[in-house]
Design goal:
Layout: H1 56-65, E1 76-79, E2 86-87, E3 95-98, E4 104-106, E5 112-114, E6 117-124, E7 129-137, E8 144-147, H2 148-155, E9 157-162, E10 165-170, E11 176-181, E12 188-189
Parallel strand pairs: 1-8, 2-7
Antiparallel strand pairs: 1-12, 3-6, 4-5, 6-7, 9-10, 10-11
């Protein structure tokens, strides 16, 4: 009870209890409330699955059509399964000729690689030069390949392989012309550069005995 004649002071406020916090919505569990976790939180309800924002089919198509881009290499590799020499670099050939528009090379997985040109080149060694005739230029190939069959026919030689490399021998004398060692899975043909002739001069003096 207020005393008679008593008034509330100016700017007085009536205190009201704070509003009760809003009830947190119960998470949805696909298996019903009985599938909710029984251990103390924190835990989160699983989100509804949504379709991916990328096209899976288009992504797979991109992987299938992707080609390996590697810097050109001057190395050549012996290939017993190739029916012709092949390279991706037309600049490695000494002579070049246009190829038919519909020419292709069929590789091991059945794919067709277009042929843009044909040409010739030679690889020199200290003893002799080896000729690579009718080389096919296929820009999408990543290794320069020497057809062993074509190589032996054009150079009148034989090629012998062993676990450590290969030997090229003269077909008539069986003399080894060049030896190429290999440390990897392929057989590279890397002839040594021609050696320079050493010129020796006689000394103007002789040691005293």
């Amino acid at each position: 009870m207020r005393p008679p004649g008593h008034t509330a002071p100016p700017h007085a406020f009536v205190a009201t209890p704070p509003p009760a916090p809003a009830a947190h919505p119960m998470p949805y569990w696909p298996g019903g409330p009985q599938s909710a976790p029984t251990t103390p939180g924190p835990w989160y309800a699983p989100c509804a699955s949504s379709s991916p924002s990328w096209d899976q089919g288009q992504l797979m198509q991109s992987f299938n059509t992707m080609s390996l881009a590697q810097p050109p290499s001057p190395a050549w590799y012996m290939d017993t399964g190739a029916t012709a020499h092949m390279t991706s670099e037309a600049g490695m050939l000494s002579s070049l000729f246009p190829s038919a528009a519909s020419s292709n090379v069929v590789v091991g997985n059945g794919s067709f690689l277009p042929i843009t040109n044909t040409g010739h080149t030679s690889l020199s060694t200290p003893d002799r030069s080896f000729y690579l005739n009718n080389v096919l230029v296929t820009p999408t190939i990543i290794k320069n390949l020497i057809s062993v069959r074509q190589f032996t026919l054009d150079n009148n030689c034989s090629v012998e392989f062993d676990p450590f490399g290969l030997s090229v021998k003269d077909l008539r004398t069986r003399r080894e012309i060049i030896r190429c060692n290999s440390r990897g899975d392929l057989y590279p043909f890397h002839p040594p550069p021609p050696t320079a002739l050493a010129i020796t001069a006689s000394s103007p003096w002789s040691p005293r005995s």
